[in-house]
Design brief:
The protein is an alpha+beta fold and 330 residues long. It has 2 domains: 13-24 and 169-329, Poly(a)-polymerase, middle domain; 28-162, Beta Polymerase, domain 2 (2-Layer Sandwich), CATH 3.30.460. The chain has 10 helices and 7 strands. Strands 1, 2, 3, 4, 5, 6 and 7 form a 7-stranded mixed β-sheet that branches. Helix 6 (181-199) packs across helix 7 (207-219), helix 8 (227-241) packs across helix 9 (284-305) and helix 9 packs antiparallel against helix 10. The chain is globular. The two termini are 25 Å apart. The mean pLDDT is 91.
Length: 330
Amino acid sequence: MANQIGIESYIQHADIASFAENRVNLGRDDAKGYREQVNRLRERLAEYIRDNPDYSLVKMLHSGSVMKGTALKTVNDMDVAVYIQPSEETVDERRLLLWLVDRLREVYPQMGSDQFNARDHCVAISFAGSGLDVDVAPVIYEGDSQDRGYLIVKDTGERVLTSIPLHLDFIRRRKDAQPRHFAQVVRLMKWWVRERKSADESFRFKSFMVELLCAHLADEGLKMSDYPSALQATFAYIVRTGLRERIYFTDYYKASALPSAGRAVMEIFDPVNPDNDVAAKYTDSDRERIIEASKDALDALTEARYATTQERAIAMWQVVLGPAFRGKES
């Protein structure tokens, strides 16, 4: 009988890698084009800053998943951060965003007013040609040498200390330790989250948390060169710990800088700011949904590993990667 003990599983690392390359990953040419578009925006803004030294704009930095190399093929926006000096215009969040809209319209006078939209934490610029949105997030900057500044948090409006270059360096270190594979496992986990959200609108598991979870497991010694094993280990960690274990990093601060434990249902700390638990706003119901979805994924991958037919193995992998997964044909 096929796939008894000692016989290889029907779905192997190469099958998942092929699916990722064809369905999950943002293509190199697309990523290059997106970066070039952001670079053109940065150049325009740099010219504007040179010509208008009295304004509070300082500089623009490319951030987000495309810059980190963890973006999915389905990405439809780019993230950039505009560093802004404190002033009367930047004290109030709403005034700050409207002020930023005005500045960006001056940078792009040929674009229509409807192409600039102030959201709750950023200004979205819609480029008609590429169909791509660029989310411009203001960072209140006071001259820190490591580009630390205060960012408006999505959904809460709170201001939190961050550093775009340090975040990029944090991911780069993990990518350098496991070239190709760390970023790929992050993208596969993000794809799983995307599939869960499409099935359950109340499912919450933001991308930054996925990156930090994978970074924690990598730091703990998880080898990610075999994707089925790495995904299975990631889901097993979530189920085993119930996401009750405190996740933090000591790249840029000591563990003693963290606040006292037990303040939130989950504690996953920003590697740049020990006061920022990026999971602080998640409820116990949110946590339980992640645990249950992880249990389903873990059970499916376990069954897929020992499936006696290829059809059954594919069906189980579709629980994790969605109906687009077709095994060796993906």
